[in-house]
Design a protein that fits this description.
With about 170 residues, the protein is mostly helical. About 70% of the residues lie in helices and about 10% in strands. It is built from five helices and two strands; from the N terminus they run αββαααα. The protein has a two-stranded antiparallel ribbon. The protein is globular and about 55 Å long. It starts with a helix and ends in an 11-residue tail after the last helix.
């Protein structure tokens, strides 16, 4: 139960970082939505500049990376203190899941944070927000199709889902 609460707290920290920086950059925030595998800060407007977009999009993964590092350090300290194995494993899992959150979120495809980072970069390079948005959206579509193809290839291997260690 504690692991689930800490996991959702880390998702909330990621999204709160987006919301706080959005407000500091003059972008109103409508709220934050959390679900099992992530969340979203609902912004009412767009960033006013590529630099603001970069800051708003980049702070969430940065917070998750920081949390991953703190939890990894906590895992090491718990191990040194000969803490119960369950506490060590849960803390290690939380460190790993936060790192995976960073890795997935920085993929350069909209609507992920990485897609917003790509959009900020392209907007800065071209000076055209709309063109940058279209390219980041296409990158998201390409990533989505790639994930579908990879999933189909895995399924075509014919391995049983029970081989994954699931009940």
């Amino acid at each position: 139960m504690a692991a689930a609460v800490i996991f959702f707290a880390s998702l909330l920290a990621h999204e709160l970082a987006h919301a706080v920086l959005a407000r500091r950059n003059g972008v109103p925030v409508d709220g934050i939505a959390l679900w099992l595998l992530g969340g979203m800060a609902r912004l009412k407007a767009e960033a006013s500049s590529p630099a603001a977009e970069l800051r708003i999009a980049g702070v969430g993964p940065l917070v998750s990376l920081l949390l991953s590092g703190v939890l990894a350090l906590g895992t090491w300290l718990l191990h040194l203190a000969s803490a119960p194995e369950l506490a060590i494993e849960v803390t290690a899992w939380l460190a790993g899941i936060n790192f995976l959150l960073v890795a997935f979120n920085v993929l350069p495809a909209a609507p992920l944070d990485g897609g917003r980072l790509l959009r900020a970069f392209l907007w800065w390079r071209t000076g055209d927000r709309l063109r940058a948005t279209v390219i980041a959206t296409h990158a998201g579509r390409v990533l989505g199709w790639l994930l579908i193809v990879v999933g189909l290839l895995v399924l075509s291997e014919g391995s049983d889902w029970k081989d994954c260690g699931w009940p």
